[in-house]
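Priority: medium. Attachment 1 of 2:
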């Protein structure tokens, strides 16, 4: 590890792809601008830039070296301006390995290193090293943070107790894809893509296709629509299964180790000390079936992981399995309360009003201008009223010692457990109607990804309950 090394030559390809992706919008804009009479000039200019990109990618790869020396990861890079970066082992928070399709073809992996000060990008990113080299580098960088133990000769049973692990079954993975709700996202993306491509479709072709569809009859059109929805549903299921396939979570000393992905294999490391809160999410589809998703709010991190602001600890499990899961992997967060102090009944009208005010106005407008379509906003209005009732019914909190459990709903119901020491700020807010009704809004803040705040709010709590929680947070008697 003391000898300076270069990345695998495949890094040249990754650098080229990254550069082309950054200039993709300009390339598309140039194609649209020169597509009539000047297409030759467009190809010549594009070819010239491509040659420059290739040369730059080769030089970038050649000038990039790394080594581990004196308890530091030392990286040197830069084509014209030479830069050096030293990262101490003690500052490293997590080391993640990611293998995309191209990586896996060549037996490579991408190493991403994050520190406490990591911002929007990882502190260091080795785009292409061999899998063996990546794993060896991870062990070498982690070795400086761990103390040697005397039980290396422990039995396999003891090892299983020390490093518990669990995976997701194919059946559960299929249920996760079926109930993920990603069909709507795929449909929206497909509609947006079609709207952009529509300008390139000749008017004659568009008109002929429309006349042909109308001539098929209403039954055929309905069958085709059902078929399209079925294809979108299958795509949603496939996307979830590809993303979370081979999901495995392992607890190793003071960190969680997560491996997932079929096409792109990711190995994520989550230090336990960076977990700020643990949550249980129940979507509208999964809640009646008794399935939940367990996630954690993580401090720090970067956008390079391609993760959401919350890290999924397990994509889907039965509600009654959560307690065993937490006792195994996060015993400090076990014992999440499900019987919480509810919101007062007089707060229900505020929840209903907030959820339905937009559709109430829309109903009035359409009822005045297009009364024949009044049923559309009325259906949406009824759904929004039901959502408001559910939000009121599901809201609540439970305080026990130094732990606080809160529950709220946007569309999915979220139950979050956090410790007093993890809460960065507590805020009490009241508008005039709340003052009159002796209600208040509680807002909690913890450290989230990128070092920014993650906020949780429960509206229209009893004012006395909000004051009690404020006293608990500030240690006032």
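Attachment 2 of 2:
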């Amino acid at each position: 590890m003391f000898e300076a090394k270069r990345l695998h030559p495949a890094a040249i390809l990754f650098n080229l792809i990254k550069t082309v992706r950054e200039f993709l919008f300009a390339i598309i804009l140039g194609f649209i601008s020169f597509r009539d009479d000047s297409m030759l000039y467009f190809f010549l200019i594009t070819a010239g830039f491509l040659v420059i990109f290739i040369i730059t990618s080769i030089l970038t790869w050649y000038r990039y070296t790394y080594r581990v020396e004196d308890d530091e990861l030392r990286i040197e890079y830069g084509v014209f301006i030479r830069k050096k970066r030293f990262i101490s082992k003690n500052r490293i928070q997590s080391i993640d390995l990611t293998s995309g399709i191209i990586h896996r073809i060549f037996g490579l992996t991408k190493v991403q290193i994050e520190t406490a000060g990591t911002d929007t990008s990882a502190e260091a990113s080795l785009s292409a090293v061999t899998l063996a080299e990546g794993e060896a580098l991870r062990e070498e960088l982690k070795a400086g943070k761990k103390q040697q133990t005397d039980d290396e000769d422990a039995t396999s049973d003891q090892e299983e107790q020390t490093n518990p692990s669990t995976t997701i079954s194919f059946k559960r993975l299929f249920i996760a894809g079926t109930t993920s709700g990603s069909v709507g996202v795929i449909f929206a993306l497909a509609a947006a893509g079609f709207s952009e491509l529509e300008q390139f479709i000749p008017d004659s072709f568009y008109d002929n296709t429309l006349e042909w569809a109308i001539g098929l009859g209403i039954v055929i059109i309905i069958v085709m629509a059902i078929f399209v929805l079925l294809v979108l549903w299958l795509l949603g299921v496939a996307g979830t299964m590809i993303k979370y396939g081979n999901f495995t979570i392992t607890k190793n000393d003071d960190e969680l180790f997560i491996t997932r992905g079929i096409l792109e294999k990711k190995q994520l490391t989550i230090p336990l000390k960076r977990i700020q809160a643990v949550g249980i999410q129940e979507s509208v589809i999964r809640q009646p079936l008794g399935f939940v998703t367990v996630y954690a709010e993580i401090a720090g991190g970067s956008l390079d992981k391609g993760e959401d602001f919350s890290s999924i600890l397990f994509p889907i499990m039965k509600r009654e399995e959560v307690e065993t899961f937490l006792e195994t992997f996060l015993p400090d967060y076990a014992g999440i309360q499900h019987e919480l102090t509810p919101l007062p009944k007089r707060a229900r009208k505020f929840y209903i009003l907030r959820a339905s005010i937009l559709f109430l106005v829309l109903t009035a407008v359409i009822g005045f201008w297009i009364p024949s379509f009044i049923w559309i906003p009325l259906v949406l209005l009824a759904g929004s009223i039901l959502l408001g009732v559910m939000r009121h019914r599901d809201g609540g909190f439970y305080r026990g010692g130094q732990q606080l459990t809160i529950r709220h709903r946007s569309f999915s119901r979220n139950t979050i457990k956090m410790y007093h020491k993890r809460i960065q700020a507590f805020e009490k807010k009241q508008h005039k109607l709340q003052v009159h009704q002796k209600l208040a809004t509680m807002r909690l803040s913890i450290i989230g990804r990128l070092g920014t705040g993650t906020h949780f709010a429960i509206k229209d709590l009893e004012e006395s309950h909000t004051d009690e929680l404020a006293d608990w947070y500030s240690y006032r008697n």
